[in-house]
Every structure is written in C-alpha cells, then in structure tokens.
Structure to design on (546 residues):
DNA sequence: ACCAGTTCTTCTCATCATGAGTTTTTCTCG
DNA sequence: CGAGAAAAACTCATGATGAGAAGAACTGGT
C-alpha cells in the first residue's frame, strides 16, 4: 500500500493517496476547551496558567494533544470530543450534565514556533462547576469572568497564543445560539425556574430583560421547557411567591427565536479561520 | 528545547510542552471542501470521483493534505483557508467572489484505515461556477444536485467515507444561515435583483416563497441589500417590468431575520463531532 | 392576625411584523 | 394598441413584541 511517496505533486489530492507517513513534515493536533459556566449571575470561563515554555506563566485555555494511537501516555482518543473531555478532566471535575460543541479549528502557520499545530477548539457549557483542582501539571487554574478578558480588562489575564480570538469566538457563538436554540438550559441544573433561565440570558447577553415578556415567550416556544408540576422550595430571600420548576424540553431549535432586540449584534466577524 | 519526550503523562497538557516530533504517532490533517453553487434554480455541489485507493471510483468531496511545511510538492499553506482554496483550485476554476467558511473538523479514530486523519471541512459558496476541468489527478469531477444525495437518491452518488455526513452538515448550515445572515448574496454575482435573491432562498430551502412579502422583508432589513439606482437590462423573456439592481450591503447579521415559517427545522442534530 | 415588601405570574394594550391576496406600474410581444 | 408578464406597492387580518399594570403567593415584622 505504501508505494510512491510524494512523487507526483497531484497525488495527495485526497487523504487516502498512497504515502509514507514519515515522509511528511510532522504535524500535531491539539484540543483547546473553552469551558463556560455561570456563578451568581456572572459568566465565567476556565483558564490555566501555563507551566511550560513558551509563554510560561501566561493564562491560556486548557488543552492538550489529541492521542492519535494507544501509547505510553494512555489509550488513544476515539474521537475529538473524547479528547476535549479528557484534557478538561485533567484540570477540573467534570459535571454530570454538560453541553459540548465544536467551535472551530485554528491552524495558521505561525501559531507555534516549533512545528505546525492544528488546534480544535471546543466550547463546553455546564451548570456552576466546582473550583479547579490545583497542582498537577498546571501552575494554577481559575474561573475568570468574561468581562475581565478582551477589551481593556486587566492585562494580567491577556491570554497566550491566539486564545483571545478563540474565546471571543466562543462568547459570540454562545450569545448567538441563545437566540435560536435552547442552549441556555446547558448552564442550568436539571430543574430550574423561568427566573433562573432569564438570569442566564441576562448574564450571557449582559443586558436586563423584561421578566414578564420573557416568561411569556419561553412558554410560547414549544418544547423549550417542560413543566414538572412542582414548585421550588422558597421564593426569594425576602419572601415572594414560590416559582414553578421546569426541566429542559426536547427541542433544540426555538420557534420563534428569542431575539435580542434590534441594535448591536456587534462582533459579527467574517468566518475565515 | 526538545527535552523529555513523553516521560510524564501530564506533560502534554498543552501543545507547547516539550516533545520530540517523531516520538508521536504520525497524524495527518486534510481539508475537504463542500463547494456549493446554484444553477438555474438548482443547488449543486462539487464531487470528484476518487482516482486512488481505497474507495477508488466512489464520489467524494474535493480535498487534500494541508501542506504543513515547504516541500517538494509546493510551498506550505499559510493557514487552513489557503489550503481549502488550493485543493479546490486543483479541481475547478475559482470564482472571483466567494464565501469560505469553516464547517468543522472530523477526527474519529476509524475514519481512515491507514493512520489517524483529521479533516477540516470548509463550505464554499459562489455564484454559478464553471464546469470542472477534467483530467489531472482526478478521474472525474461533476456538479451534483443536492437532492441526488442523502435520502434515497441514486446509490451511484453515495459519497465515500463520512462525506455524506459532512455534506448534510453543510446543507443544514447553509439553510440555517440564510435565515439570520446575508449569506444568500454569496450565491449571486455582484449585481442582482430581489427576484434573483428570492430564487436563492427558494432553491436552498426547497420551498416557494411569497414574492411580495419577500420583497418587503428584504428591503426592511437594514444593510442587507443596497439599491444601485440602476435597472436590469430586461425583465422576463416574455416581457415584464425591468427590475431594480441591488448589490450586497455591509451587514452580515439580519435584523429581523427571515424565518422559514414555523414547521420543519428538521435535521437539527446535537453538535458533537 | 395583619400588613408591608418581595417575587412570580397573568393580563392589557399599543405597536410592529407576518402571511395572503390584490392592485398598480412598467415592460415585451404580436 | 392591447394582452400578457414580471416587478413593486398596497391592503388587511392575524400574530408577535415591548412596556406597563395587576393579581397571586409567599416572608418577615408588628
């Protein structure tokens, strides 16, 4: 099967053309995970402080090499999502319910000084995650507020490599998908109230919503939430009616969508990665 | 810099940990392109008949290895979009205007019998593309109607590998993005009429639209299209008012979106790739 | 027991978007 | 010049939306 190497320059026109693996320049494939959660109305994402060169000491997304084959480091990752969960599990405890979704792959030639590296980024949403375990191979890991990153936040958190770009893409993806999918429930435990759900939207969109209209629209979207018939233990700390408890419905696509009204859909970049 | 190979199993926690490239199992990165166009109201995509084993003779997406480094086959691809355009250019002439967007990356262990292959899929939209050049390294290339693929079409076109899945993802992505972005203009030449635009929507969504309401909604979405002030040469073949010519506006996000009304948003799969 | 304050839920209403159909304008062809 | 065709504008009933008000159910303090 391994026959002619790279003799004809057209012969690599598809990925099963014959070749000798070691005739190719070495490339690496990694996964980076943008793990997002919401705690007390504040959207957070997980960053680790790099313990290895280069960029040692800078904050970065948790990530690691995809294990292509079984080896001394452990068994191969059967698929990319498995690799994403594995590298995240090395940094923090995984929640029982989570939403994992591929964001995109970044492979510019100058991303890494040493070799050609392709990074597959994943977005992971989960209800209030525990604090990361310290130690292990990483110097430090922390849940960082979204707003501390990006535009003019403390330079302390300026992420390594092109991770600022990846994070910006993830945030924009999450914001957009709240409009037309039931993604918001991924930030919540199995049982939640309409107010809990609204607070997710307010946190991610960073804007207050009209509670009464939100309530109406959620119940109008078929399959978004399902009434359990039960009520929560208590209302607010200072009294208040006990809210109904809902669970996520079967639908992922919302009809009609919950649009963030008109203005600013900023950051809608052209999609060439 | 190259120091300790894979001694500690935590040490590959991020992609710049020290390593010896050849200590890793060889992996390959390819790009596959779902090139879409519309001809006479019929949505088409480009398939090539495989000239190499395995699956020789089956139809597949045009694709090829990403060139990680400069080599005998040619210069390295600076970034993934460059690789996508290069492999497509090997099969057909590239249009002057196009929309290129990353779809996702597929990396299941059993995708390829020979080695671990990660395929980055791209979606390319362009106005009526020319017929592919025959010959070169591919046995055959053809523009195939979407409807000939997928569910119960002629088995002749059953695509190789997991390309049916990639194509299905691309079609669903295109259908969805027509709702809330100005993507449809990518199928059209620089100057077009509202009717041209409506025919794109009808072709992609495979359903007739109410012409008058469509017209109203397009003009109501700020920044979608821009009036040139000019009129087209003639109306229909059998007479008719000369339509206004528009060009694409600056906006990519549509407010309000053009929803395909209520029912069927079928094929909304969970996003784990 | 009652009341004030709080929270969830439902209701009203003016406004805007939508689907369906009709009419007007402008063109070609015979 | 008139019939037919296509684009564009209009009408109207219905449904969704934003803003606010009102009702219901609860807590804690008097």
């Amino acid at each position: 099967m391994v026959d002619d190497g790279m003799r004809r320059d057209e012969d690599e026109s598809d990925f099963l053309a014959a070749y000798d693996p070691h005739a190719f320049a070495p490339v690496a494939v990694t996964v980076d995970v943008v793990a997002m959660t919401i705690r007390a109305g504040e959207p957070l994402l997980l960053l680790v402080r790099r313990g290895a060169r280069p960029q040692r000491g800078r904050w970065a997304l948790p990530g690691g090499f995809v294990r292509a084959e079984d080896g001394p480091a452990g068994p191969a990752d059967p698929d990319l999502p498995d690799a994403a969960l594995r590298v995240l599990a090395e940094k923090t405890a995984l929640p029982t319910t989570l939403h994992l979704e591929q964001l995109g792959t970044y492979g510019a030639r100058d991303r890494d000084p040493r070799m050609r590296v392709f990074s597959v980024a994943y977005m992971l949403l989960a209800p209030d995650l525990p604090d990361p375990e310290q130690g292990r191979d990483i110097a430090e890991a922390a849940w960082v507020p979204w707003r501390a990153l990006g535009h003019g936040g403390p330079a302390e958190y300026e992420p390594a490599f092109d991770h600022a770009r990846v994070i910006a893409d993830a945030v924009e993806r999450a914001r957009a998908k709240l409009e037309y999918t039931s993604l918001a429930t991924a930030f919540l435990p199995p049982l939640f109230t309409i107010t809990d759900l609204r607070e997710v939207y307010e946190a991610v969109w960073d804007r207050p919503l009209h509670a009464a209209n939100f309530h109406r629209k959620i119940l109008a979207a078929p399959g978004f939430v399902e009434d359990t018939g039960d009520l929560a233990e208590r209302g607010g700390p200072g009294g208040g009616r006990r809210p109904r408890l809902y669970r996520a419905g079967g639908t992922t696509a919302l009809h009609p969508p919950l649009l963030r009204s008109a203005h600013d859909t900023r950051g809608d970049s052209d999609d060439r990665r």
User: Anything to note?
Assistant: Helices of chain A lie at 80-89, 163-180, 194-205, 211-220. Residues 74 and 122 of chain A are 21 Å apart (CA to CA). The first strand of chain A starts at residue 27 and ends at 39. Chain A touches chain B through 84 residues (CB under 8 Å).
